[in-house]
Amino acid sequence: MNISNVDAIIIVLYLLGVAIFGIYMAGKQSGVKDYFLGNKSIPWWAACFSIVATETSTLTFISIPGVAYISNMNFLQLAIGFIIGRIVIAFVFIPRYYKGQIETAYQFIGNRFGDPMRKYTSSTFIFLRIFADGVRLFTTAIPIKLITGLGYFECILIVGIITVIYSYIGGIKAVIWTDVVQMLIYFLGALFAIYIIIDMLPNGWADVVRFAEPDDKFQVINFAIQEKLSLTEFFTGGIGIIGGIIGGAFLSMASHGTDQMIVQRLLTCKDKRSSQMAIIFSGLIVFLQFAIFLIIGVMLYAFYEGLPFKEMFVQNHALTKPDEIFPKFIIEQLPVGVVGIVVSGLLAASMSTLSSTFNALSSATILDLFGDKFSGNSEETKLKYSKLATLFWAIVIISTGMLFQSETNPAVDYALKIQSMIYGGLLGVFLLGMFNKDARAVDAAVSYSVSIVILVLLFLLPKFGLIPELNLTWFTMFGVIIVFLVSFVTEIFGRSPESNSTLK
Whole domain around residue 316: which residue ranges? Predict the structure, then answer.
């Protein structure tokens, strides 16, 4: 072990405490609605905190500081877009979700385009979550490996097993109430880190300013669009003000309006107004959160005097990822006791997302994919299979986390691109269903499929040097545009007197 006994005790107590707390708060489930929706009894503020904790994960805790260290605070432009996107969700998506007895985001698609399309979109959501959260789980293992000396396999296994225990037993209530606690813990850990960095710098904040200002580390708004950029440079360069805000808004609409992991939280609230308050306030908290972790990255830049991360070492090993900069500081500079608190915060960020993923994948499987198979079963039987589905997907996510050990780019960029490959088409189909009354199921299915294929190619081809790499901020918007263009074509050339509004 590379940490003190005091820190180890703090971490162990946190892991055990959060599992016990989650199970206690959940109580006993009476059926599937209780297991997946908490009987719609969750307060809006708890749902809000859970949304924030769910989307945060370890990517925010360690990767966002790494992003600021190697660039600046331009990433905050996305957070501005996130707020705009959530306002759209509050007043466009949520009212539609509260019409009828909708249990998952994809039930809306089923009501509009038919059950096959519901299963199609739900299946791609499952595929998305497997790989995106595999990245998130791996990022958790980075600092744990550095701190404990354990291998990635053991680190991923420990986090996954503890998380699945309370997710399996307590359902969505356990997930949400542990999220509330975990959000407070990782915020506390971040504030501790800020205080200690300032305290360790000879001149405090003045040193941060001295190192950061010459390299524009405090730059939030990138007005590069005002320069004479080519069209290619505009879409492939750094995050600009237009790409950040528009791209962030589209990404937020997709991730919080069509992703079952977040929509599930909105559906646990008692009414439409509560859901609207939860989603809007979550955007404001996330903006503050991004600012805090970006500031940590800038402060670390001052602390290490701008040293390139590849020239840094921790435990005689050179750093290979920007994601490792903050973990290096944690294990080398933080005092005994504080290490345990900060690492617990890191674990909290990861476990809140993982638990949400396990439950959301289970709900999509049982309610969307196999709902018709369980229609005649008792609530007890449905609950049994729901818990088994949670356990199954936990095993899958833990296994997937092992696949990303060689990725050297900031993990947050990698994960967001994986998400955006499907998010764009998914959001496009939802908007198509809401605003195009003439769109048929075949139009939705074809345009969604084409969108996924094109976005996957835009993601993969740059790795072979065939095309420039598209900035992550544009993926989701491009997907929406593709869906509407393709569906327009299929409507014109595919409509016939025999056409139906649902797939046959």
Answer: 5-494
Amino acid at 467: I
The closest alpha carbon to 495, from 423, 417, 438, belongs to: 438
Nearest to 137 by CA among 429, 347, 292: 347
Dihedral sign of CA atoms 158, 162, 165, 168 in order: negative
CATH number at residue 141: 1.20.1730.10
> Has residue 376 been placed in a domain?
yes
Residue pLDDT, tens place only, 176-199 = 999 898 888 888 888 988 999 999
Structure token digits, residue 490:
């299929």
Task: Give me the long-range contacts of 327-331 (CB less than 8 A, separation at least 24).
Answer: 327/62, 327/142, 327/143, 327/146, 327/147, 328/146, 329/193, 329/197, 329/300, 329/303, 330/143, 330/147, 330/193, 331/2, 331/3, 331/143, 331/146, 331/147
Q: Please give the Cα distance from 81 to 290 (Å, whole number).
A: 12
Do 368 and 119 contact (CB within 8 A), yes or no?
Answer: yes
Q: In 10 A of CB 315, how many CB atoms?
A: 11
pLDDT one-digit tens code per residue, 115-164 = 999 999 999 888 888 877 887 787 777 777 777 677 778 888 888 888 88
Whole-angstrom Cα distance, residue 258 to residue 408? 29
Return the residue matching tokens 């409509």: 495
Task: Tell me the CA end-to-end span of the chain in Å, nearest whole number.
Answer: 60
Please state the pTM of the whole predicted model: 0.86
State how many domains the chain has: 1
Integer Cα distance of 208 and 486 in angstroms:
50
CB of 215 closer than 8 Å to CB of 69: no
Cα(271)–Cα(258) distance, rounded to whole angstroms? 18
Which of these, 103, 38, 30, lies nearest to 379 by C-alpha position?
A: 30
